[in-house]
Write a structure and sequence with these properties.
The chain has three helices and six strands; from the N terminus they run E-E-H-E-E-H-E-H-E. The chain has about 130 residues and is α/β, with parallel strands linked by helices. It has a single domain, classed as 2-Layer Sandwich (Transcription Regulator spoIIAA). The radius of gyration is 15 Å and the shape is globular.
Amino acid sequence: MADISTGPAPCHTERVIGGTTVVEMRGEIDMLTATPLSARLDTLTAGPRPHLVLDLRPVTFIDGSGLRLLCRARNRVLARQGRLRLVVDSGRLLRILRVALLADVFEILPDLHTDHCDAPEEGTVSAATG
């Protein structure tokens, strides 16, 4: 009998640097991987003042499900007075965010430095609130 697979589990790693959780996502973020990734991001954004950096540099593909996942994470973080930043160095992914009218919604970093991972001081909010 043939083994039918629904696709690989989402590939991501997590680490905490200076009070910020850095989630490196790899591969495809699509309708097969978005649901389990979204559940994990929901857990990471459940507490007060969550600070997340989503490193999307290793992402090879993202569809509407992946964009929805990013928006959901952003909304949850902002509702809890936290901060969400995306690390994007791909012109292709930046174009997708622009076409979806999301490039100005997210705080986008071109690379990941540990100084990007310091949690903002009390009362500080992300510049990209809108």
